[in-house]
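Trehalose-6-phosphate synthase
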Amino acid sequence: MSPSKRAFDLVVAANRLPVDRVVSADGEVSWRTSPGGLVTAMESVMRDRDGAWVGWAGEAGEAPEPFEEQGMWLRPVALSEDEVKQYYEGFSNDTLWPIYHDVIVGASFHRQWFTQYEKVNRRFAEAIAEVAAKGATVWVHDYQLQLVPGMVRELRPDVRIGWFDHIPFPPVELFAQLPWRRAILEGLLGADYLGFQRVADAQNFVRACRQLLGLQTRGDTVSVSRADDSRRVRASAVPISIDFKGLEALAKEPETRARAKEIRESLGDPETLLLGVDRLDYTKGIGHRIKAYGELLAEDKVAPPREVFVQVATPSRERVEAYQQLRAEIEGEVGRLNGEFSRIGAPAVQYLHHSYPRREMAALFLAADVLLVTPLRDGMNLVAKEYVTCRYDEGGALVLSEFTGAFHELHQAFVVNPHDIEGLKQGIMRAIETPDKEKRRLMRAMRRRVADHDVQRWAARFLENLASAPERPAPAAPSSRGGRS
Ligand code: GDG
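Structure:
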């Protein structure tokens, strides 16, 4: 069988392929698995199945030919420079992202962006239809591909389609602003099963179907009834997680532990090392965190070198204007605090606008006495789960915003409302001052939760829900539905 004719029982589609293109010094091109949680999760479900992954390879222009890598068949989707600007940076990151995150910054609406979004979603759907075996399971990921379920259903009524939303699904009052709201809901309703991070996200979706499309809903299911398509679609919460065993093992390695010790020493062995790790994104509440910390410095409740605050801000979406503005604001504020409160050899805030290898992240988590996770809105926040996973020593304390998905699972965190700067300051101080014995108890409970609900369990639960989604009538033509029951 020629490579282009291969067909797979499991097809995953996400905006990005799970690999990055690496060009060596002598110009040789190879692919390296990208380290994200999604890749780890999918590896475990694809390992024993015949799986393909459809996604963009990360560079504008022609797509590479499909290829096999680490037991997965990768089917690249091409994006032109214009499509990257309009489908990805524009509609996905400057229209949908703000609307789905409480409009923390304003959303931009451009009809041309949506046209490109539709065009690219169709290209993904066609690629999926091309590689899916008869009756295959198709798992579509995230807000960039919301029209794909409906488009795949049109092309391939025989396959079973699931979609997972990594970010929040907004309340209907905000979602309703989107001029393309109907197309998006109808696109999603092409799926058999829709998974969300929180119960509230699933409920927001169901409510939007009722109020904006006038569809009948009952509990977590929406009834789609059209002349040619009559089905029930289930929408429920399956919170994502991380590879607990793999990350814990990395944290335990002598090299990681030695690096954690070295990090503390190079910071002057502070009594308390506070850490923030985020993509530099306005949803993450980095500004609120820095404001609160600045006030604690001004009130002399914290002072370097006794307390040191390290903020890792990973570069993100640097061509989108809101992100350029955010970077300027954060860096201005960090500069102001350091000017006022640093001493020679003892900066008040260590700000790092870099991306680090996984081991370095694990070492930072292991070194930090307090992790500050203060988003204004966040689908889940994997950093919080990674922190507790790395703390095999049961040390450390987690300050956690109630506007994250993680808040609904990690009940033993020091919970804060990041908009309430006084409350945030108190939360930080409680995390510093609570006796170690009590903090160990809290950490132990959080670790148990993540160990029991790891990413492998998440993927298995999603696929079970998809497999047991309500049956649908066989399509009239061209043949009856094959596939899984
Ligand atoms: C979206 C949703 C949801 C960060 N800097 C470095 C690095 N990271 C890793 C972290 C973590 C991941 O990136 C970030 O995940 P988050 O969950 O915190 O946030 P988003 O990127 O916004 O992800 C979010 C997630 O999807 C999954 O569904 O939780 O709510 O917004 O794994 O460790 N990793 C390395 N170097 C870095 O510098 N190696």
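Residues 244-452 form a domain with the Rossmann fold fold (CATH 3.40.50.2000).
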